[in-house]
Amino acid sequence: MALTEAGRLYFDRCKELIELAFNAREALQEEGRRPRGKLKVMLPGPLEPLSVARVVSDMVRTSPELSIECDYCFGEADLANREFDVALRWGAQADIDLTARVIGFYPFHLFASREYVARFGNPQTLLELQAHECLVSDGCQELSVWSLERKGTHQAFKPRGHLRANSLDMTRRFAAAGAGIAALPFQAEIRDSLVRVMESWSLKPVPLYAIYGSRTPRAGARAFVSELIKLGDPDPDSGSLSSPDKNVRLPSRSGQPRVSKVEAWS
Asked: Which domain holds residue 11?
């Protein structure tokens, strides 16, 4: 059976359209793999355990079509009221229906300024700690009660003091000003001349989450998070205790965990 002239013209035209559709699909897929455009990142503080500046600098250098805007925002309301591509947050979050990946689990310790220790001493027991001014952070649920560990012993301690803040960065600033003892990520002593107190005790590791602003994150957002995960799981002596899973349960403060849909973007 042979095609008529009209049939052949119709066939050739359809073939061209199919090829154009495949080419468009391939171009769209390539666009999704290449970081470009503006990437807006919301950062908490402090972030000493992560070399965020290094990741940002490397990405801008290797992806000339990409620009990155960093926004330091601390409150949960920022996630609902601001546009962003990636938001980093310590600990469990409010009931938000967003996709997330865990960067890693990081040890926290107790820190104070040298001035504070010189004036009030370095507590060594929980009983002594009760007599000190403790700085309370409302920005991380895991730090509302300090889960202290030492040689297999676990103790819960409720911090009490005259100062509280909704961001770890402000809590760190209070500690640096000599206002009291704060629970902060390891390496906090690198800044502000902070020193560890109760050195034989550590806090339970706190997760750091990367929350995507879209269910279909762009290539730049995925690349940024992937680079942070690489840095978030260094050698065992650096402080990051465990590598993240691809499929993350993002716990909410109501206690009902949500399974984040990240497997397609890992």
From this structure: 5-105+207-232
